[in-house]
Write a structure and sequence with these properties.
The structure is a single chain. The protein is built from 17 helices and 15 strands. With about 425 residues, it is α/β, with parallel strands linked by helices. Strands 1-2-13-12-11-14-15 form a 7-stranded mixed beta sheet, with helices on both faces. Strands 4-3-5-6 form a 4-stranded parallel beta sheet, with helices on both faces. Helix 8 runs antiparallel to helix 11. It starts with 6 loop residues before the first strand and ends with a helix. The structure holds iron/sulfur cluster (SF4). The site of iron/sulfur cluster has 12 residues, from helix 2.
Length: about 425
């Protein structure tokens, strides 16, 4: 994608904040369709129908290539050339595809029509299509829409767009309800269960997760809802929740022992949990997390890491790798920097760290090659060329596919970075 070149350093906030290099040039990222890979696993009775081209279908097929489904939970309705040329009624064709799908699959309770670059180019109005089809198939199936288009977006924005579409459909908390906690963002079921147990151990009982595992169990929201984000890429979802009256709890993201402690602490403070109850609930798992990190510290301490902007997880992960494993941050690139949602993580970064927002890939490649970091976090498209130049890389997309949040996953998160370094060391012997 080409755009006018622009690079300038501007402060994030206040005078103590590290300067941010803002770049608006050619970018190397996946599109928001990729989010379907983890969203479809989470909402077990949902179906994601991409309204796109053969390119979109190929992307999904290669991303999901290793999975074999008896009944897949996503597919692509292909926009053909006659649709692009305006020779066919794309709406009528879409209605026919959806009707066939829902007749054949009564297990589907929530259908997402997912827009793509081609559907945007032909200006196919999927919100009207979702309304029309939603009326036809109610109450058995709810039909929603969002865009996964790669035009000016990055791949984790697909989850943000999906959850934003869900928020207006959430039931309202009855007025005067007891205060409740909403955990927002896709988590692996095992991680969700761990957090639920920790909140219960602290005495916080009214806890719900967005998205829920089933369409009929989506949480209620209202002015008595406090929410915690599990991902830094949910800016639009947060805005939609606040429009429903919910209030965000400011916290670092739950990555590593320190981040998870801070994240849980924000809930504990909001719900009046005593220090003693908080410590009693988290002491053992925090200790397990710290012990698990020991394993990777020898491989990572003092090693230099460079982040290309990709998943939007870069800043909390950089904070974790620097503070808990002693890594040196060469450059931390992120596609978008949400300074409010990332404030707690930014405050924990070392003074003078080089942050960059957006991308001008050629310039960033020059900086990366000149710096010769020990490990580089980047998208799949850059990994092979960088490996070819002798750099060790980590695929950013793995950070979204792998359960990394919470105390029990801290060791695995560190291991994701230690493994490529250990592998290269072994190859060089
Ligand atoms: S949505 Fe756009 S960027 Fe994504 S696969 Fe389809 S055409 Fe490519």
């Amino acid at each position: 994608m080409n755009a006018p070149l622009l690079a300038r350093a501007v402060p994030v906030q206040g005078c103590d904040a590290p300067p941010v290099l803002r770049e608006r040039g050619q970018r190397e990222v996946f599109c928001g369709l990729t989010g379907i890979m983890w969203l479809h696993r989470k909402i077990q009775d949902a179906f994601f129908l991409i309204v796109g081209s053969r390119t979109c279908a190929h992307l999904m097929q290669s991303a999901a290539g290793v999975m074999i489904f008896a009944e897949p939970r996503f597919a692509t309705a292909i926009i053909e050339e006659k649709d692009l040329a305006g020779l066919a009624d794309a709406n009528a064709e879409l209605d026919a595809v959806v009707t066939r799908l829902l007749e054949r699959r009564p297990d589907i309770k929530l259908l997402f029509l997912v827009g793509s670059c081609p559907s945007e180019v032909i200006k196919l109005d999927l919100s009207r299509a979702a309304l029309r089809l939603g009326q036809r198939f109610a109450p058995q199936v709810r039909v929603l829409n969002y865009s996964g288009s790669g035009i000016e977006t990055t791949f984790t924005q697909g989850e943000d767009a999906c959850l934003t579409a869900l928020v207006p459909t959430l039931p309202a908390e009855p007025a005067g309800s007891e205060k409740s906690l909403l955990v927002v963002g896709v988590l692996a079921d095992a991680v969700e269960d761990q957090f639920r147990r920790l909140f219960r151990a602290m005495g916080i009982e009214r806890v719900a997760f967005l998205p829920a595992r089933r369409a009929g169990e989506m949480p209620a929201v209202g002015p008595d809802t406090s929410y915690l984000l599990v991902q830094p890429f949910l800016g639009e979802t947060a805005r939609a929740l606040e429009n429903r009256g919910a209030m965000r709890l400011a916290a670092p993201f739950p990555l590593g022992a320190e981040g998870t402690t801070g994240w849980l602490r924000a809930a504990a403070n909001a719900f009046g949990v005593t220090d003693a109850a908080f410590e009693a609930a988290i002491a053992a798992p925090r200790e397990r997390a710290n012990r698990a990190l020991e394993h990777s510290r020898a491989a990572l301490a003092g090693r230099r890491i460079f982040f290309f902007p990709d998943s939007q997880l870069e800043i909390p992960i950089a904070r974790f790798l620097h503070r808990e494993l002693g890594m040196e941050l060469v450059e931390v690139g992120t596609p978008y920097l949400h300074k409010d949602h990332l404030a707690a993580d930014l405050a924990l970064l070392p003074a003078g760290v080089q942050l960059s927002e957006g991308q001008d890939v050629d310039r960033q490649l020059d900086r990366c090659l000149a710096a010769a970091p020990d490990i580089t976090v980047c998208g799949l498209g850059l990994a092979n060329p960088l490996e070819d130049r002798g750099l060790t890389t980590k695929w950013a997309i793995e950070l979204v596919f792998t359960p990394i949040q919470g105390f029990e996953q801290a060791g695995d998160l560190a291991e994701l970075f230690a493994r490529p370094l250990n592998r290269r060391a072994a190859l060089e012997v």
